Amino acid sequence: MTKEWFSTVEIAELLDVGDRRVRDRAKQENWQKQRRQGLGGGFEYHLNSLPLEARQKLAKQEAEQIATSPTSLMRAGSAVAKLQMPAVSQTEKAKSIQQFINLPDKAQKRADAKMLIVNAKAKFCMPYLEVRKLVDGEKAFCEAYVKRSIALPEWVFSVISSVSVVTIRRWENVLTKEGVSALAGKYKVERPCLLNDEPDLADFLKGLITAKPHLAGKAKQLKKLAEIYAIKTDMPWQIPSISSIRRWVNKWISQNQAAFTFTTNPKKFNDKYRTAVEQTYPWMAAPNDVWEFDSTPVDAMLKEGRHTIIAVIDCFTRRVKLLVSPTSSSEGICLLMRKTLLAWGVPNQGGLMRTDNGSDYVSQRTTSIYHLLDLEQSRANPYSGWEKPFIERFFKTLSHDLIELLPGYIGHNVNDREAIEARKEFAVRLKERNKKENEKADYDLRMTQPELQQLLDNWVDAYYHLRAHDGLKGKTPNEVYRAAQYQVQSVEHPEALDLLLNHVGEYTILKGFIKAGGLRYTAPEMLEHEWKGQRVRVFLDPTDVARAFIYPINNWETRIEAVDSRLLGQEISPAAYRQTKKEEAKALRSFRAEMKQLAKTFNIGEIHQTVIEHYAKQAKSLVEFPTQPIAHQNPSLMALTEAAEQLVKTNKPGYSDQQIEHLRQKRKAIEERKNTINQQHATLVRNEHEKARLLAAESLNRELTPKEDAFLKDYKKHNKLGAKRIDEIMGHKRRATN
């Protein structure tokens, strides 16, 4: 202890008695004493003379002071050394401290707790040690610790719930021999792995688990694959055990977590590891400086089917505009642009429009609108949501705060979908699994497209724009907009905006007309030579697709009105016209598919063979009546005939009778072989139709095998026209048997 002499007042407080009784006991037991310095005089008594109960209380107070004081590990170690424990050398102590610093936080906390317990126990047991009752003191300390009557921090008890005499002595021994870091726990030292000596095997496993990450947790299969590869390639690998491979794989993945995730799961890498310290749009200083556009499918089924939300966000204020559309198309984007321009005004000079890289956002119609408004379009790279973070963050808020509450909610992912499916009984799901008409039966289809549009607009105005945002330092979008005192550049004539948004492109006038969107527009001015060859911009009338307004490039002061006389006066809107064209194209594709199916059903591809067979059959049924030939009279032939007869008379055969007979037999054999070959050629099957007819003909002379009979039945089932021919052939057999 730091104090050795105590006054009668201090001893009386420890023993909970009066001063007089302390003096009487000191006189009776002859306590060691000395004159007290300072005012009041009197005697003070030495620690070793005090009763045991007094020394126990002093030890407990000392332990509490140590536990609550900011004693460092070095000072604690020094205090323990003063308790007559052998001290480690300075070199070992420095090494232990260095090891302690490099320990994980959890291990450091465990060592700190043990150090405090050892130090508190030493102080607590000092009075017992002086009277040679150390074991009793240790037991008393352990009992007090379990009861939590030792004034140690609460976190010490949470780390180490109970102690024993043997445990504390072991800690003291470890502290003496190995230093502070050893108190963190003697866990098994990492065992050497054979993979450290087999770099090729390690590379094989690295390539395997990065190419097939689902195998990373299957050490048994990894070992088997390594063995097979080693045998096939004659690699002299010493393949370790399954547990060794498991430890090596887990360690390698933990050491290369970010790189492994980047290779095997880019989306997770972007969400968890991608650097996000830079500021997006650092130059942004006012509303309408930057707008971000994006589209996302609605995770809810409407009465009209699943729809898409097209959204734009003003990045400076976080204001949002939404449009519900059947699909994300240039038509929907232009409608959202009109809605936003009328509400927020035109973006600032040099404003940036950050869009997705989809075909709807890079279409000619969409990009031309940005160009005509002098806006810069910046396209995000595919699958790079962090390049438009504001709209992505908004979609997440919308999805979790509102979409999940909608009737007809279908889930954000597979787990949500399975939970929705689980609401139905298994028997019902099994019965309706293959019924397409029940595809929407799982959902509560109560909302229509206009109803969802109204709901989203109300949610944005009544909640999102009035909600404090962390990115706005706790302010709401409306507060930021008001504080900016922004002067809106409004669109004075919405009709002009409607025309602008119906820009269909740039064309060249060649023969007094232009073709745009499948229509042919002309005007008297376009017949003049000044207009021929000019490059012009074409805008459709929002209410009548038959009327277009044409402006020369770089000249907005000159305008002509062109019409398509075929549709003029019918007041067909461009949107309705485009929709009709889509429906017509869809109908044509459906008709083409139906005709292909009919051609397949009636085997039109083999119709030529059917025609030839028909005429061949008719030809066989015809009987040709013989006629008496008439000799052809020709002077040349008659003269040559006389000469030939003369040769026959004068030339005699030069072969004997035996030779002539031999030649006759040989000629006969050749003729027979030729007939056999011709028959084989005649029966050669070129396709399934000939095979079917051949089998039908052979059925007249023999019984078909089960395989042949099955082929004929299948052929007749799938070839209606060919089946008639087969029935005719086989009909001869039935008539013959009858």
Brief summary:
The chain is of the alpha+beta class. It contains 29 helices and 14 strands.
Topology, element by element:
Blueprint: E1 5-7, H1 8-15, H2 19-29, E2 33-35, E3 43-46, H3 52-68, H4 73-81, H5 90-101, H6 105-130, H7 134-146, H8 154-159, H9 165-178, H10 199-211, H11 219-233, H12 242-255, H13 257-264, H14 266-272, E4 290-302, E5 305-314, E6 319-325, H15 330-344, E7 352-355, H16 364-372, E8 376-379, H17 389-401, H18 414-421, H19 426-432, H20 449-462, H21 477-484, H22 494-501, E9 503-508, E10 513-516, E11 519-522, E12 535-541, E13 544-552, E14 560-563, H23 574-601, H24 607-621, H25 635-650, H26 657-682, H27 688-698, H28 706-718, H29 720-737
Parallel strand pairs: 4-7, 7-8
Antiparallel strand pairs: 1-3, 2-3, 4-5, 5-6, 9-12, 10-11, 12-13, 13-14
Helix pairs in contact: 1-2, 3-6, 4-6, 6-7, 11-12, 13-14, 15-22, 27-28, 27-29, 28-29
Domain Integrase catalytic: 283-485
Pfam family, one: rve
InterPro entries: DNA-bd_dom_put_sf (IPR009061), Integrase_cat-core (IPR001584), Mu-type_HTH (IPR003314), RNaseH-like_sf (IPR012337), RNaseH_sf (IPR036397), Transposase-like_Mu_C (IPR015378), WH-like_DNA-bd_sf (IPR036388)
The top-level CATH class of the largest domain is Alpha Beta
Our count of helices gives 29
Class from helix and strand fractions:
alpha+beta
Note the beta-strand portion: 5-15%
Model regions low in confidence, pLDDT < 50 over at least 5 residues: 70-88
Number of domains: 5
* Biggest sheet: strand arrangement: 6-5-4-7-8
CATH topology call of the largest domain: Nucleotidyltransferase, domain 5
Mean pLDDT: 76
Instruction: State the CATH superfamily name of the largest domain.
Output: Ribonuclease H-like superfamily/Ribonuclease H
Q: Terminal Cα separation, in Å? A: 130 Å
For the sheet with most strands, the description reads: 5 strands, mixed
Number of strands: 14
Q: What global shape is seen?
A: flat
Residue share in helices?
Answer: 40-55%
CATH architectural category of the largest domain: 2-Layer Sandwich
Compute the gyration radius: what is it?
Answer: 51 Å
Domain Integrase catalytic: 283-485
Organism: Shewanella baltica (strain OS195)
GO molecular function, one term: DNA binding
Domain HTH Mu-type: 2-66
